[in-house]
Amino acid sequence: MGFWRKWARAESRAPGERDDKLRRRVNALFSLLSDVYGREKLVLKAGKLDALDLMQSPDVREQVLALERIVFEDPTLEECPSRHELPGVLDEIEEAIADILARRDVEERLEQRIAEKMQERHEEYVKELKLQVLREDSGPDNAITLKKYAELEKLEQRKLTASILKSMRPTSIDEVVGQESAKKALFSKIASPFPQHVLVYGPPGVGKTTVARLALEYAKTLPFTPFDPEAKFVEVDGTTLRWDPREVTNPLLGSVHDPIYQGARRDFAEASIPEPKTGLVTEAHGGVLFIDEIGEMDPILQNKLLKVLEDKRVYFDSSYYDPNDPNVPKYIRKLFEEGAPADFVLIGATTRDPSEISPALRSRCAEVFFDPLTPKEVETIVRQAAARLNATLEEGVAELISEYTVEGRKATTLLADAYGLALHDMQGEVIGGEAARMGQAESGTSEGSDEAISLPRVHIRMEHLLEVIRTARLAPSVVAKGSSSMEVGHVFGLGVAGFLGSVLEIEAVAFKAREPGKGQLRFNQTAGSMAKDSVFNAASVVRRVTGEDLSDWDVHVNVVGGGRIDGPSAGAAVVLAIVSALQDRPIRQDIAVTGEISIQGRIKPVGGVYEKLFGAKQAGISYVLVPEKNALELPKHVSGVTAIPVRTIEEAMEIAFSSDLDSFLAHRREEFRPAAAVGAQAVEGVRRGADDPKFPLDAPARRPVQGSG
Predict the structure, then answer these.
(1) Please, what are the domains in the chain?
(2) Which of 183, 189, 208, 612 is catalytic?
(3) Fewer beta carbons below 10 Å: N end or C end of the chain?
(4) Is position 612 annotated as part of the catalytic site?
């Protein structure tokens, strides 16, 4: 207060020497600065800027200089403004003070907003702490999550039923139709003290998955197998197994979630701890891993699977793993240092040919082959499925289904569609009550669902199945059918695609050429280059066995339906068709022929004989002429089909042109001689086949190399 009294006395000492207007203006500015900074702070500020003495001076010019030093914060200002400069200097000081006041106002408002934000953050932090305490006491759920959980539980209680295909699936090995040798082979490899990895080959819909699942269930009941009652059957489709080369995801083998990747746990990500995720091979530990369509898997993934089969463990690696980090959980440390257990039996199913499967994988697995289903077996499957649906079949329904498919799964699908139509037709009666009472008296239960449901008694008529066939626009699986008649220029060949054999209709016509030596030999181009070579070979053989020069004839050979022939095995059939057309000799229509023809007239061995016999059976063929050197590859049991090995085209012609084949074979049984490689067993089989045409050649079965034609 002493400073301000001295300043006031200085102002009152020379009232006449200064202009009152300027003095009042200067006083107002000092008062304003006092309000801005505060009296004490203004004195301190003036002291630092050497302006205290100037403020107490009676000279108004020195007071203005003091104002300049304080406002502009510049103690180096020494020259006092002249009296006529005072108004301008005061104007500059006023503008500077105005800027200070504006800045101060902005700062105050910012400070106020900052204070408000800090208060809001503080309140949010306190609220979050309260919620965290509540969650620790009540768990992670809240009203919203509990509501969603209740909705899921409500959905779980609302069930329709299991799929109809699941209801018709075999539940025991006795219900699996056919495949006796395959079932025995697969069971012997799984239900053993030393179970083996197995590759299962066969066409689709013949029971590969079902038999594999039942083999594990059977093995778990035996005291000497390593499978315990809790052993899992883990099933996966090889076509859906995708993996990331960076090992970010690999559902089959497992992967590591590094902390930098999306999906890592928050606590692990914050602590930079990688987390291994085990895959299906670990889930199947102690049980069976069934990979359907294993041939479609990525080759690199197959090689990784081979490593797991060898080690019986899956090892994980990550550059983020620090074995010295005390924050790493025990299970993560164990997975990184010891790996995850993966001791399982692999069963891989495929519709591919063995030659298309990785040799490294095949070398580690036993191989089992499933046969194509015969029409009778398809009929049995249909009748069994109808019984599970509590349905009766009109006569001919099962037989008609067997004409449109050779797959068990497709057969049950057709039956399920017909069942739905039949149930729809009787729906009015069920509502009326009469059929409902009948259904209660004669009802069945669906075994495929968790809770058995009552099934009404349904009668499936032929019209239901025909409507299904028309709606699905299906065509018979076998168009060409054998018969007991004889026909000129028409013979059945045999082809194979995958694991399914089929019958090819080969026909020929011959006309005398308009001019000798200018005849033409025509053949449909769509059959392929191999088939064209077979025709040219056949032309030479025809001249050799008939003496006819085909240049004097116009000959047209046709494969009915434009089927493509990728192998040479149509040669013998083409020769028979051309000879029949040239000599007008009818060929038996209950015979099919397979074999490559050499220009010397020998019938050479071909591939796919095993499947071709089943294809012939599908078409109602009674006799199949096969190359003599393929005798060892013939199956033991193909009832209704007699396999007759032949060595030359002359032998094939004698049989194909015979009108009384039973008498012919009986007459020739002593002189009918197979190749020496067949052995005594095959000779006895041929002789017994001569005595009884329905008795198949009893030779050891062996998987042939795939062929076609």
Answers:
(1) 1-158 (no CATH), 169-369 (3.40.50.300), 378-472 (1.10.8), 486-691 (3.30.230.10)
(2) 612
(3) N
(4) yes
